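re: that chain from earlier
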Amino acid sequence: MALPKYTERYLAGDSWLAGCSTHPALVREAWSLEALAPIPSGRAWLAAEAPLVASMQAHDRIPSERRGPVVADPTLDTAWWLVPLDAADELADLRTVTVHPAGWPLHCPPTGWPVCGRFWLTRPDGSGELTDPAVLAAAFGPGGYRRPTEAPA
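^ sequence. v structure.
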């Protein structure tokens, strides 16, 4: 019996995310206990932290094919964007965004369901695709990134 497509995506995202940790088995164990798994940044991505409302607005400005994983915590009014390891300099001028250094633990839910109120706005899909810092900076900047519009026919 084949798994539903969304289940395959969740499994691929979980596998990739757990693989970003030096202890993937501990990540999976935390998730099996309905707990957040602390995954240190720096192996595959850095975490760019921003206020949740501003992140949701930026999220809506970026086309889905240009967005990498984004985890949200409404209780903390915070979101974390997974960005490339060299993104800190490009995002340094954004006052509302803080790029955490390598080794900083991001407490992640699994991709398929929320844990402790934390959930993925954009789930990891297993591809390792991250949000381009230039696109993220434009989305948070004055006027924000705008989706290209089609020329009138």
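The longest strand covers residues 46-51.
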